Amino acid sequence: RQWYQRRVRLMKSVSELCMLVIVWAMNITVAGVVFYYLEEPSNALIASGVDGMWWAIVTMSTVGYGDTYPGIVLWGKIFSTFFIWVSMVFLALPLTIIRQHLNKPVRREKDSELSK
Questions:
Q1: What distance in Å separates the CA atoms of residue 21 and residue 69, rounded to the nearest whole number?
Q2: What is the four-CA torsion angle of 55, 58, 63, 64, rounded to 10 degrees?
Q3: Torsion angle, CA of 40/46/52/54, rounded to 10 degrees?
Q4: pTM greater than 0.85
């Protein structure tokens, strides 16, 4: 019975996780295009927006292959640093969403005990 209740609570987080995936995809697209426009004039590794999106995917997933990286442009390095910080937040969000739904019954029990 407890397993079933946990499963139901996890299923409630699916819509939030789907929204997170949509935001992740939009973030990859925008960051890839911005990186392309910042780096394209001086970085031979960035030939198209797709290369910029590849950089964004590799950076956001914290894989860091090293095949694409910011060149000598200051704004490219600043944008890359900002994007790495955003990536760390995105890695923490799914666990936070799942934990929030799993802890709801525990919080309700504690609140009811405190109100007695």
A1: 24
A2: 0
A3: 180
A4: no
